[in-house]
Structures are given as structure tokens and as C-alpha cells.
Specification:
Radius of gyration: 19 Å
Largest sheet: 7 strands, parallel
Helix content: 25-40%
Shape: globular
Bound molecules: guanosine-5'-monophosphate, manganese (II) ion
Distance between the termini: 39 Å
Number of domains: 2
Strand order of the largest sheet: 1-7-6-5-2-3-4
Structural class: alpha/beta
CATH architecture of the largest domain: Alpha-Beta Complex
Strand content: 15-25%
CATH topology of the largest domain: inorganic pyrophosphatase (n-terminal core)
Length: 316
């Protein structure tokens, strides 16, 4: 794929009349906020923009301006477009079925994962960016977009999510300067955090059961939790659960296992320092140094055995 500068990325977007913007599966605040900010900016230029994600969207994101614009594609649908834009996804599988459904003139990928597989025709990759939303901010500045409160809120949401609300090591002075600029464009930070911190009762009740599975290996350097298949509920957002093992004293790598389908296990990795993206990549996944994930096509107990062995081997 061709590496693009910010200016070239802006030119590609401006040259297209009809665009499909795709957020990655298991959508988070960064992929959704980044995609929606771009949608608002392109629609203001009179572009025809279709929004797609091949997954359910958690109701915690309902407050994001424009979220109702997302639609899923049927497997036998075909959609013509000038440009297919894939946001915050480091590999083609993260884009879901859009790569098959859409017949684009070209594919553009905007991303910040160092594990990016360069699957698109055009790539804007900045692995130093804390969030893809930080890239979108710079891109819209470059394109001369007028920053409405809606656009600013979507970008803020992306940065808020990927920096763990401005706490993680990817938070830079640039992150804070961008956030300050977004507040000047009308972002209400407590609206964002009130929505993002809100827990449903079923979520907390599930957490209570999941914490009972907490297990330590290698002298407490590894900690993992699991969501039993009979407990799994796709409508309950469990993204925050892994912070419990992650922040335990002495833990270097934390894992969360869940089994969304009979022969599919999703694994989340978090670390304090060790590069877990490497482990995730070795299982066909990806991510960042301290936060990564993968899918294993096996039942949960089987997947746990394989993955935990690989993680334990890091501590020989
Ligand atoms: P999470 O554990 O929250 O699902 O994901 C943590 C990080 O790893 C995110 O940045 C996410 O984009 C990345 N990630 C998670 N699962 C996968 C996967 O299956 N493939 C790839 N390429 N990246 C993943
Ligand atoms: Mn993401
Ligand atoms: Mn991201």
C-alpha cells in the first residue's frame, strides 16, 4: 500500500463524491468517534457518505452525534463507491464484511496501530498518535474543516477512549493541546465522562461473577479472568473488566477470555511494560504495546491453554 501524507489523504477524500466509512468490529470510542467526525466533515462538503460497522454498537455510545447513521451490510449486498475509508483498523478482518460488499475505486486506511498489515491501497499511519481521533483532528485542520461542537465531541470521545481518559502513557502534551482546542469548540467533558463511566446493573452483576474467576500464574506476574460461556451476553459491555487484573500490584500481563461463539474465543491482553502486541500478532491479532487482542478459533478452555502457555513462556 502507498503511504500518504496528511495533505494527500485530504486530497483523496476531497476527490471522492461517494464514500463508505467503516469502523472496526468490536467498535470502541476511537473508531466510532473518528469515523463520525469524518462523516460530519465530509457531509458538510456535500459528499454522499455511508456509515458502516459489521457489529453491534454498545448503547454507551448513543450520545455520540450521528451514531444513528450506522448500518450493517447484508452479505449479498453490493455497494459502489469512489472511496472506502477504514478507520482505526490494523487488518482487513477488523473491517468486517465491507471489504467484500463495497466495490470501491480505492481503499484508504487511517490508523495508529504499529501492527498495521498495510492491507489498503492508501495508508495514513501514525503509530505515535494516541488515538486515530488525534489523526482525524490534524486531518480536518489540514482540510480546512469548520469544527462544530458535534465534530469536536466525536474527536474528543476517540482520544478520551484510547488514552483511558488522558491517563495512559500514550497521552502527550499534543493530546492535551488537542483536547483544549476541542473544549474551545464546545465539547462538554462531563457529558462525555458521564456517558462513558455509566454502568448498567447487569454489567456490575456480571463483573461480580467474573472477578471470582481471577487466577494468578508465575508468582502473580500473570493474572487472568474469564467470562464463562453461559454468562456471556453480547448486550453487556465488558471492555472495562480487564482493568481489574491489569492494575493489581505485581501483575505484568493481564488477560481476559470470553467465548462469543461456540468455537470462537476472544482474548484481550494488557500489560504494564511488556509488548503484548507481539503475542497478539503471533495468534493472528494485533494492537498496541500495552493493549492488544486476538481471536482464537477454539472453545475457551482450549484457547486459554494455548495462550497462557505462550504468556508463561515469556517469564522463564
Ligand atoms: P481489546 O482488548 O480492547 O479488544 O483490544 C485492545 C487493542 O488491540 C485495540 O487497540 C484493538 O484495536 C486491538 N485488537 C484487539 N483485537 C484485535 C484483533 O483481533 N486483531 C487486531 N489486528 N487487533 C486487535
Ligand atoms: Mn479501536
Ligand atoms: Mn484506536
Amino acid at each position: 500500500s502507498k503511504n500518504c501524507s496528511l495533505a494527500e489523504t485530504g486530497e483523496l477524500l476531497k476527490a471522492a463524491k461517494k464514500l463508505v466509512i467503516v469502523s472496526h468490529v468490536s467498535p470502541d470510542g476511537d473508531t466510532l468517534g473518528s469515523s463520525l467526525a469524518l462523516m460530519h466533515a465530509l457531509r458538510a462538503l456535500g459528499k454522499d457518505v455511508i456509515m458502516n460497522v459489521d457489529d453491534d454498537i454498545s448503547t454507551v455510545y448513543s450520545f455520540l452525534p450521528g451514531i444513528q447513521e450506522y448500518r450493517r451490510f447484508g452479505a449479498d449486498e453490493t455497494i459502489e463507491a469512489d472511496l472506502l475509508v477504514i478507520i482505526d483498523a490494523s487488518s482487513a478482518d477488523r473491517a468486517g464484511n465491507a471489504m467484500e460488499v463495497v466495490r470501491p475505486g480505492a481503499v484508504l486506511n487511517i490508523d495508529h496501530h504499529k501492527t498495521n498489515t498495510r492491507f489498503a491501497d492508501y495508508l495514513y499511519l501514525d503509530s505515535d498518535a494516541a488515538a486515530t481521533a488525534e489523526i482525524i483532528y490534524a486531518l480536518l485542520l489540514e482540510m480546512g474543516t469548520e469544527f462544530t461542537t458535534d465534530i469536536a465531541t466525536c474527536i474528543y470521545e476517540g482520544i478520551y477512549t484510547d488514552t483511558g481518559s488522558f491517563k495512559y502513557s500514550n497521552t502527550t502534551s499534543k493530546t492535551m493541546e488537542t483536547a483544549a482546542a476541542l473544549l474551545k469548540h464546545g465539547v462538554n467533558p462531563s457529558l462525555v465522562s458521564d456517558n462513558m463511566e455509566l454502568r448498567s446493573r447487569s454489567q456490575v452483576e456480571m463483573l461480580r461473577k467474573v472477578l471470582e474467576t481471577l487466577t494468578f500464574l508465575k508468582d502473580g506476574k500473570i493474572a487472568y479472568i474469564e467470562i464463562a460461556p453461559e454468562l456471556y451476553d453480547r448486550n453487556v459491555d465488558t471492555d472495562a473488566f480487564i482493568s481489574y487484573p491489569r492494575y493489581i500490584e505485581g501483575v505484568e500481563i493481564a488477560l481476559l477470555f470470553k467465548q462469543p461463539e461456540e468455537n470462537l474465543t476472544r482474548v484481550s491482553f494488557r500489560s504494564k511494560e511488556i509488548d503484548v502486541a507481539k503475542i497478539a500478532v503471533s495468534f493472528g491479532g494485533g494492537g498496541h504495546k500495552k493493549a492488544a487482542g486476538c481471536s482464537i478459533y477454539a472453545p475457551m478452555k482450549e484457547a486459554e491453554k494455548i495462550v497462557l502457555q505462550a504468556v508463561e513462556d515469556l517469564f522463564v
